[in-house]
Amino acid sequence: EVQLVESGGGLVKPGGSLRLSCAASGFTVTTFSMNWVRQAPGKGLEWVSSISGSSENVYYADSVKGRFTISRDNTKNSVHLQMNSLRAEDTAVYFCARNRGSSWFDPWGQGALVTVSS
Amino acid sequence: QSVLTQPPSASGTPGQRVTIFCSGSSSNVGSNTVNWYRQLPGTAPKLVIHSNNKRPSGVPDRFSGSKSGTSASLAISGLQSEDEADYYCAAWDDNLNGPVFGGGTKLTVL
After folding, report:
1. What are the C-alpha distances in Å from A114 to residues A14, A23, A81?
2. Cis omega (within 30 of 0) on the bond before A107?
């Protein structure tokens, strides 16, 4: 069964850092683009970042560029999102999702809640 | 403000057909395929339509998608209470060089 499981969410103070992980099973992360999509409380979906199958290409939304870093660990078949200089507006559930092309995301992980508050 | 525009709410009675619309521009819906997601409260989004009109395995044929120009739609026929959820459209945006989503439509089954 193809599955994604996120971990690493939690409460962090403004300006702090947090690292999210996404463990994949049922497929190899090097064969797909892997993405992070977030959803602020009561709001819609916002794409955050993606990493290509070869890891040669990484992309970020303007809202997180320069603060977030996406990476892949092939030995653990996982993807990570290092989040630095966190702001209150980064508070959201962060979903990991496999990309099948364009805006085709399937499956999605269960999500990890990140709360940025003093 | 979302790049793609969806009505915030839609409703129907059991057995009815409901259509949810998604409006974009030439840089996204007009030039790329549209995908639709369904999200139940407190859960992750789930793909219900990909590539404008294709249903993933396991999605009932009551769900259908279409696209024309810079607009797309998701139709649900034979509405059931379990269809009550939030629905999001998505498309790649050539100007932003990334995927964009609609603001979501909350479907209520009366």
Report:
1. 12, 17, 12
2. yes
Residues of B with CB under 8 A from a CB of A: 2, 32-35, 37, 43-47, 50-51, 56, 88, 90-92, 97-104
At position A9, the amino acid (one-letter code) is G
Asked if A59's CB is within 8 angstroms of B97's CB, the reply is yes
Q: Which residues of A touch B (CB under 8 A)?
A: 35, 37, 44-47, 50, 59, 61, 95, 100, 102-111
**Tokens at residue A107, please?**
């499956």
Mean pLDDT calculated for residue range A63-67: 97
Query: Which of the four pLDDT bands, split at 50, 70 and 90, describes residue A56?
Result: confident
Segment B55-68 shows an average pLDDT of 97
Tens of pLDDT, residues A6-55: 999 999 999 999 999 999 999 999 999 999 999 999 999 999 999 998 76
Beta bridge partners of B56: none
Strands of A1-118, DSSP E: 3-7, 10-12, 18-25, 33-39, 45-51, 58-60, 68-73, 78-83, 92-99, 105-108, 112-116
Query: Checking DSSP bridges between strand A68-73 and strand A112-116, what pairing results, if any?
Result: unpaired
